[in-house]
Amino acid sequence: MSVEILDPSFARLVDADAAVTQVGSGFVFTEGPVWHPRDKYLLFSDIPPSIRYRWDANGTRESLNPSNKGNGLTYDRDLNLIVCEHATSSVARFVNGRREVIASHFEGKELNAPNDVVVARDGAIYFSDPTYGRMPHYGVERKQELDFQGVYRIAPGGGAPELLVERGLFTQPNGLCFSPDEKLLYINDTDQANIRVFDVVDGRLKNGRLFASGIADPAKPGSPDGMKCDAEGNIWLTGPAGLWVYNPAGKLIGKVVVPEFAANLAWGGEDWRTLFITASTSLFALAVKVGPRREPFMEAV
User: Fold this and answer.
1) In 3-state terms, what secondary structure has residue 254?
2) Residue 127 in contact with residue 111, Cβ under 8 Å?
3) What is the pLDDT of residues 10-26, one digit of tens each?
4) What domains sit in the chain, N to C, each tagged with a CATH number?
């Protein structure tokens, strides 16, 4: 069985006999899935070969090659693609196919390697900046210019990225997502194996506290990475052996076993009830009974 119900509430989110289905394969290390709400296709990254792919009912094809070893993907309200690029240490936006860099430096130093990204309703862009894109295989090996790994905000009108968290708080900040009302921002740390949650006040982060910890299993591969919030405020996270799901109170309510090392996830499909999972050499899909936290781009149609 793929689904492990640890609390009865999880059965409302996904059927106990739901299957994780492979819908694409032959990749190296997949990441960053995002569903296009108008044209009904999924974009995702294959980081090591520096290729962005497009998947739909007709199969998979290349969307961009090379992709600057792109990782996290999302859209803004106008359906412009926003990409975290490992090879350039940048956050880039694609407008009508034209690439523009919207963040690359902080205090005159190159960002580490922007990893995951989310857009708020007011158009502000939040992104994590660990060092994975400066490592072999996942990026371009090179010396780190900053001496910490942070989380940043780009104001709705653009401008220099603003550091939102205390330097040194995170070891490797990775996945991030808003609560449905955007009053909370969740950020996980791959090395610390935990999730922190912050109050969002005028776009800044306040009152940081531990939401979940001990997200590790020595007998199973995987650690906190991609993370999304559903319409009910539950947190879906890639972790050991697949997906771990927490309710808004921080209680682990269920798990989903994925056949390969899972790195990220995203809702999609005609009714936003398909969960796409990027997992190493494959792309998987899981039918669920709950929709996503409605991000601005989902309302663009």
Assistant:
1) strand
2) no
3) 999 999 999 999 999 99
4) 3-299 (2.120.10.30)
